Amino acid sequence: MGTGNAVNVIRVGKNKMTARELIKIKDIEISFQTINESDFISLTDIARYKDKNRTNYIIQNWMRTRSTIEFIGLWEKINNPNFKGVEFDAFKSEAGSNSFSLTPQKWIETTDAIGLISKSGRYGGGVYAHKDIAFEFASWISAEFKLYLIKEFERLKSAEYIAEKLEWNTRRMISKANYRIHTDAIKEKLPKHLTDKQINITYANEGDVLNVALFGQTAAEWRAKNKGKKGNLRDDATIRQLVVLTNIESYNAEMIRRGLDQHTRLKQLNIAAIALLKSLMSNDLRQLKDENIK
């Protein structure tokens, strides 16, 4: 890219429900947020490329056109089961006329649209649109600007994926290192007369205590459900689950040294896993049924 085009990415902050970040393109900062696992880009910021002082007017002027109404209406029909088609048809029939005007708020309230979001507030406020719609708006503003926006947006998403993968690998390494504490505790309690095969079975059984407590299934059960999939149950875990696994491994090692039986430990580990996942605001909690606890 030439000088003055898309440049650095500025992180503003994240939480577990939404993520707000900025991309700077031709000295215009474009913010976007992740809402319900979908990316929404600020139309207000994009409109500043055309007129920094009248962004609302720019957006409303775009929404007056018939092609815009048809596009955002089609997007809603595809993605929104609650979209009000009758109200959409009314807007469509009026679009393009000299007397027609439409604001994002009116569109959202009248049709129950989800592709546009109107946010208030000094920071992060304005009109946001799903990236599909935002790219269409950017094209209306400037084809060149749209291309830079798409390129930078994709670059950022690729960088985020790499960062998440690195974090996952780090968590997995920590989990593997912590598992040594767990196996050492098991080794201390092993009877002296066991064969190597029996020892391996004991380790595997104790590993499955953790698996069932956290994932609700044994390693063998996971493999049966995921034939052909590379890796194992723990390789398939989320970062939150690996954090919890690291904690319950230490907890189980402590209970083994205290001489608690496997049935009791499994119950306690499941309770601990659920509490930890709740603390991490995870949605994939799995309460054990009685038949899982043996």
Describe the overall structure.
This protein has a six-stranded antiparallel β-sheet. The radius of gyration is 27 Å and the shape is elongated. Helices cover 57% and strands 12% of the residues. The chain has helices spanning 43-47, 55-63, 66-79, 85-94, 104-111, 131-141, 143-189, 196-215, 219-225, 239-257, 262-279; strands spanning 9-14, 18-25, 28-35, 38-42, 116-119, 126-130. The termini are far apart. Helix 8 runs parallel beside helix 11 and helix 10 (239-257) packs antiparallel against helix 11. With 294 residues, the protein is α+β, with helices and mostly antiparallel strands. It folds into two domains: 9-141, no CATH class; 164-292, no CATH class. 28% of the residues are buried.
Largest sheet: 6 strands, antiparallel
Number of continuous helical runs: 11
Structural class: alpha+beta
Strand content is 5-15%
> Unreliable stretches, pLDDT < 50, 5 or more residues?
1-18, 282-294
Radius of gyration: 27 Å
Helix content: 55-70%
Number of strands: 6
First CA to last CA: what distance? 62 Å
Order of helices and strands: EEEEHHHHHEEHHHHHH
In which order are the strands of the major sheet placed?
1-2-3-4-6-5
Shape: elongated
Total number of distinct structural domains: 2
Mean pLDDT level: 78
